[in-house]
Design a protein that fits this description.
Layout (H helix, E strand, L loop, with lengths): L1 H21 L3 H23 L9 H8 L14 E7 L2 E7 L6 E6 L24 H4 L4
Helix pairs in contact: 2-3
């Protein structure tokens, strides 16, 4: 009987962990959102002011942009990161580890996080939805 109870607890725990992979909790996403604003600002600076090489892959661009502070990438080690360069601005998209579902999206030209995509219903596919011409437009 005790073995059956332990097995039931283990299965429940595993199922809870599996569903959490696609249903992130709010606290985790708010912490990641704060970290993303710093990462996207570094990407924006690299693209807009430091002439980041155009041939860099997404991950390489982010490593280049954060060479002054590599810890900016640490919160996203278990996620897929994408970068879009558009009109000399940078957008950073955080997706699930398998790269299928969008979780957070931020333009480096804005102060706050632009989109909490993890709240989208149905789940948003891992693709950019922000236009820099709109969010980065000057006065």
């Amino acid at each position: 009987m005790r073995g059956l109870l332990l097995c039931a607890v283990a299965v429940t725990t595993l199922l809870g962990c599996a569903s959490a992979a696609h249903s992130p909790n709010e606290e985790t996403m708010l912490i990641k959102a704060s970290a993303l604003t710093k990462l996207s600002a570094a990407a924006e600076s690299a693209v807009r002011y430091k002439d980041a090489p155009g041939e860099l892959t997404d991950r390489a661009l982010l490593q280049w942009a954060t060479s002054h502070d590599p810890a900016l990438l640490a919160p996203f080690s278990a996620y897929t990161l994408k970068v879009l360069r558009q009109d000399r601005h940078a957008l950073v998209l955080v997706c699930t580890e398998d790269g299928t579902i969008a979780l957070l999206e931020d333009a480096g030209c804005t102060a706050g996080l632009d989109r909490h995509r993890w709240r989208d219903t149905p789940e948003a596919v891992c693709g950019f939805s922000i236009e820099t011409r709109v969010v980065c437009a000057g006065p």
